[in-house]
Amino acid sequence: MAETAPRSLAEIREEIDRIDAEMHRLLMERGSVIDDLIAIKKTAEGHASAFRPAREASMMGAMMARHQGLLPADTVESIWRIIISTFTYVQAPYSVHIDTAPGADHARDTGRFHFGFTVPLVMEESAAEVVAAILASPGDLGLVCVSAAGRGAWWADLVEASGPKIIAALPFVDRPDHPAATPYFVVAAPVGDAAANDILLVSIDYDGSGDDRDSAEARFAAIGWCLVDFHRDGAGTRALVSLVGVPDEDALTLKAREAVPHLQALALVGGHARAYASAPTGEDAA
Questions:
Q1: What pTM was estimated for this model as a whole?
Q2: How many Cβ atoms are within 10 Å of 163's Cβ, its own excluded?
Q3: Strand pairing partners for 239?
Q4: Where in the sequence is the domain holding 104, given as residue range(s)?
Q5: Are residues 127 and 208 located together in one domain of the fold?
């Protein structure tokens, strides 16, 4: 059998140009489909929120499941995040208010990785300011740094049923060398059936005058719940916990009493999808 002659540099470049043109054509085609989606949503849902956290998480999971080859998964994730976020912006313009607790530069990098440069990014000095911004502008998104402690009970304004909720956790993809690995909660107006509730977030008020963060963490760990944040002042003790379970406040209240017998109040403040594992790339790819 005769060997196939290697392609010339010009032929390879021509193929790259063809692929680039096809990717651009598909993005424009996606835009025309979004036009139809906007028309349907305005007819069927009025001016409902364009955010669909469960669908976004599902899309990111499907992308990771099919990804292979030399292109780093981080690059693919960022491209898809920008596509999704930008087309959501096209449907209903919004701004992203981001907590700068980890540092302004770091926060900006996180915001741009997940939302690109078309969506306006507003830097806020604290988690409380992020929540206040969403209360003032319900069509926007807020990003609250999960790992920054000691900021008061910033989630207190999320307990009302009609108030903002935690609707997602970033990054969607879990990998040790992720370029935007700092965990953030996405806070927004309630999204109803579009919410992802693999992990529930619950606010708990209780009489814990003798508790510090470590003892509170041990209390909730004993019933399989994870302490996310903790605040105690003259008004009482409030904890933010995450757990896997059914979003039934009566059932959650019964369970919470096992950890904190002097429970005063419990409220669901949101939920998010589980993070997806990154696809292998390079030599490790299938």
A1: 0.88
A2: 18
A3: 204, 230
A4: 12-195
A5: no
